[in-house]
Specification:
The protein has 474 residues and is of the alpha/beta class. It is 53% helix and 15% strand.
Length: 474
């Protein structure tokens, strides 16, 4: 047993060393590319592109299930985008609240008797399509509940344009977000098959008429932690991964895709969470199998604001769902892992995801059990353990600080000096409890997967008006 524990100790040391090395490599790639983003923003052509006939038309797909509290602000923000040609397709996925009715009342929609729908991907049959000529680029699909992926497929079947964009119904796009993504697409339209936008937490911000008017950090601790998580994932991670064409996910909250390739891979996978990761893996697989040049890009200055869960119950439900989706995707595509045929995806991205994301909670739990074993067998040198923990904490904290620095260099969305201090302080607090419970949630998500639990989980919405009122009183 002592030899086993000693061997595990060496394994843990190398595991931490390797994962931190990869983290730092990716964030260095992010730094190398963030200056290109800053330069593009400073000398951007996106304003002139807003009226260009060469900008590709986009169909924006908005799956909506029980979204009566947020859907009106969401749609109004989309109808006000600075973009020449686009349409908004809201898919009411069998909502049990008044999602459909508030849309009908707000925009004067009428059910259409004749609507051309071409089924290019499979989806649940729809019950009706609603439209009002006064809002020529707005359509609402009403269908039985089939899940988010099924809703996106229904939207694809109705869509009229060659590009599609998936947007969460509890999210708000900045007015120039779509045109900024279009600029990235037009840099290499022949090879670009998908582009992800940057997701930011709207809790604490002032929102008026579907527009974020004043940016503020959240007041509650859980949304604050998620703000820092998103900053690290999107700025510290996805900029770097996209630079080597190794993105494994484009967030379901905001992404743009070439419709023809989405159709070629069969559309979105139905009946299981993790559809945003799944569609990207399928695109990588298809392009590499067909030996086609391609890229899946990330645009950090195209911003989508979303509501973050502010209770442990709702956040835990979300993270368990993410854990289920991640595990399902890795198992379904295990033949790609360490397969040189799939280049960066097969040799780096997917092995990294399996070892340092999917299996991470098991390593954390086994590490705790090993530490207990060391203590019981009197193998623990307190000084060595404390030094090891301190080094691990320091590495993790430096990565968080590096992400905050990226934010300050490129975007400075949080203008007050005390905001930087607040982010630095909460980045440190995250290591004491929050990250551990996050690993537990992922493990419980795996248990739900083994139980064949395909439900979306608990999720409640809060009116943007309520959020605005709270931020105005603080």
């Amino acid at each position: 047993m002592r030899d086993l524990l000693l061997g595990y100790g060496w394994f843990a040391m190398y595991y931490v060393l390797i994962v931190n090395t990869i983290y730092f490599t990716i964030i260095c790639c992010s730094y190398a590319n963030i200056f290109k983003t800053v330069k593009r923003a400073a000398y951007s052509r996106y304003q002139s592109l807003a009226g260009s006939q060469f900008v590709p038309p986009v169909s924006i797909l908005v799956p909506a299930f029980n979204e009566e509290l947020t859907i009106i602000e969401n749609v109004r923000s989309l109808l006000a985008l600075n973009y020449p040609t686009y349409e908004v397709i809201v898919i009411n996925d069998g909502s049990r609240d008044k999602t459909l009715q508030v849309m009908i009342d707000e925009f004067g929609l009428k059910r259409q008797s004749k609507v051309a729908i071409k089924e290019v991907v499979h989806s649940t049959p729809i019950k009706g399509v609603y439209h009002n000529p006064a809002y020529p680029n707005l359509y609402v699909i009403d269908k039985n509940n089939g899940g988010k992926a099924d809703s996106l497929n229904a939207g694809i079947n109705l869509s009229h344009y060659p590009m599609i964009s998936s947007i969460d119904a509890d999210s708000l796009l900045e007015k120039d977000a779509l045109i900024r993504i279009a600029q990235v697409y037009m840099e290499n339209p022949e090879e670009t098959v998908a582009i992800g936008g940057n997701i930011r937490i709207a809790n604490g911000c002032t929102i008026e008429d579907g527009i974020v008017k004043k940016v503020r950090l959240p007041d509650k601790i859980l949304p604050m932690f998620q703000t820092l998580e998103y900053m690290k994932a999107f700025l510290g991670g996805r900029i770097g991964w996209s630079s080597i064409n190794g993105l494994i996910i484009v967030s379901g909250a905001f992404g743009v895709f070439r419709k023809d390739y989405v159709v070629k891979v069969g559309g979105y996978r139905e009946g299981y969470p993790g559809e945003d990761m799944n569609i990207i893996i399928k695109l990588h697989r298809y392009m590499l199998d067909q030996k086609l040049p391609y890229r899946i890009a990330f645009c950090p200055d195209a911003v989508c604001w979303t509501q973050a869960p502010d209770t442990l119950r709702i956040l835990g439900s979300q993270r368990k769902r993410w854990g289920r989706g991640n595990l399902k995707n890795m198992l379904e595509n295990r033949d790609m892992i360490f397969n040189p045929r799939y280049k960066v995806m097969g040799l780096l991205t997917m092995p990294y995801n399996v070892i340092f994301e999917t299996l991470n909670p098991y390593f954390k739990i086994s590490g705790l059990l090993a530490l207990i074993g060391y203590s019981l067998m009197d193998m623990t040198n307190a000084n060595i353990v404390l030094v090891f923990m301190a080094i691990n904490l320091l590495f993790g904290y430096l990565l968080s600080v590096a992400s905050i620095l990226l934010e300050e260099i490129a975007f400075r969305r949080y203008p007050r000096m005390r905001d930087v201090g607040k982010m630095l302080w909460y980045s440190f607090l995250m290591f004491f409890g929050y990250r551990q419970i996050g690993a537990l949630w992922r493990l419980l998500g795996h248990v739900e997967f083994l139980r064949n639990n395909n439900t979306w989980g608990v999720m409640t919405r809060q009116s943007w008006k309520v959020e605005t009122t709270k931020s105005q009183t603080t």
